Amino acid sequence: MRLSCPALARRWTAAWLAALLPVAAALAQPLPITLASDPAAIAKMALGAERGTLVVGVLRGDKTAYGVAHNPEPSAAPRAIEPNSAEQPMFEIGSVTKVFTGLLLAQSVERGEVKLDDTVGQLLAGKLASPLPPAVASVTLRQLVTHTGCMPVMADGVTGGPALAAQFRAFDKAAFWAALSRIRLTAPAPPCEAAYSNFGMALLGQILAERLGTTWGELVRARITEPLGMNDTVIQLGDKASRMAPAFAGDRRQRLLDMAAYAPASALRSTAADMLTLSRAILAGASGPLGPAAVRMLTPLARYEGAEIGYAVMVRGPEGGRHTYYHAGVTEGYRTLWLLAPDTGEALVVLGSNARAPLQSVMLAIGKSRYPVPGVEVPIDPQRLADYEGEFRINKAKTLGFAVRSGRLLVRETGRGYNALTPIGSDRFAVTAIGAELRFRRGEGHAVVGVTLAQGGSRLDARRVSEAVAVPQD
């Protein structure tokens, strides 16, 4: 389960599984962390050595518990985090905002206000100054909420860095609708392989608001936060501004990220208590305060990074098995994780005031605990290891390379170092420290033709493209 910080900086999101996390990160964990762990221990791991404040909220059945970590530690013992949200610090939740947009779509579908296969062209007919290209007009709500609509990360070729934050801040609705008329899809026409898009999710939220004759922020208030009593989940802070945990990126202070047209993608601020209130309502299912929309929003709609995605909710776990639902986010000064485990009735919220807080260590540990891999080494003839050497392609940008050194099979992801693999069965290997399993596939003549990487409830398939691989030196 890898969470790549550079990718987060570019896309303001988080993927549970993209490939292998370096083993060193896993071995640095002081304690095994699960959803049953002390929230204070989770908070300490999630903040690491970074500056700032980090609050963890855990829901177990009907009971909530909170833990907090500070760096530097205050001179006097800080007041304990209480369930009363008015006592809790606030954070930007970044791309976890998309969960709210997905829930709004689920509610609108349940109410018959829109259909998943309604298109952008249909829903915006007569509302734009310039006509949309046919391919853009054909994108559906289903494709927007699952990132399969071929939408770019942001408008006008922006993919990351200062330009991304600048566009978040600068785009009002006029600029946003103007950008839609000139948007360039990543393929000739949808659907596409899922690729994360802030623009697409913002477009979804703005379309729902237009359809219902209101604003996205008002929809969130009227349909989610007010009915659930989430009084500290807001876009505009008003008199709550003093409660925002001071924001950092490493050791540097950061300003808050205010946005207008991109609000449905990343604009909300919230507390751990409010996010657990939302979690409880979703876990309650159709009989809870959100009604059937709570079930609908978790329903898988498309494939996403080796697993599935529902209504902007990432879904991990085997078909017919235990599922984990989550989203994560990062802004210039905050980093966030929201996770549900319906099979155990548990939820986890991690809110940190440092964009570089190592939340990936928490995700890795929870993934290992929920989807363990065998750890017992099975002896293998070293001569057979040559069967697995070579390059295996996952997609255009990512490969897995296997090489043999000193009688051990090693693996590396594109652009990373090698990790040693432990044989655990016939054509099966593991990196047990990070809960990853690799199963090789054989084809004609019993030759190895592919490999499947399973980690954290996801599966990525790769096909063999070359038997040549650079052998690392001792």
Mean pLDDT: 91
CATH superfamily of the largest domain: DD-peptidase/beta-lactamase superfamily
Helix content range of the residues, please? 25-40%
Question: What is the terminal separation in angstroms?
Answer: 27 Å
Biggest sheet, strands in spatial order?
16-15-14-13-21-20-19-18-17
Number of helices: 15
How much strand?
Answer: 15-25%
Report the CATH architecture of the largest domain: 3-Layer(aba) Sandwich
What is the radius of gyration? 23 Å
Structure, described:
This is CubicO group peptidase (Beta-lactamase class C family). Residues 51-351 form the Beta-lactamase-related domain. InterPro entries: Beta-lactam-related, Beta-lactam/transpept-like, Beta-lactamase-like_AB/R. The chain has helices spanning 5-11, 23-27, 39-47, 97-110, 120-123, 134-137, 141-145, 161-170, 173-181, 198-211, 216-228, 263-266, 272-283, 293-296, 359-370, and strands spanning 52-60, 63-71, 91-92, 248-249, 252-253, 269-270, 302-304, 307-309, 314-316, 324-330, 335-341, 346-352, 390-393, 399-405, 408-413, 419-420, 422-425, 428-431, 436-442, 448-455, 458-466. With 474 residues, the chain is α+β, with helices and mostly antiparallel strands. It folds into 2 domains: 91-370, DD-peptidase/beta-lactamase superfamily (Beta-lactamase); 382-466, Beta Barrel (Lipocalin), CATH 2.40.128.50. Helix 3 (39-47) crosses helix 15 and helix 4 crosses helix 10. The two termini are 27 Å apart. It has 15 helices and 21 strands. The strands form 4 sheets. The protein has a 9-stranded antiparallel β-sheet with strand order 16-15-14-13-21-20-19-18-17, with no helix packed on it.
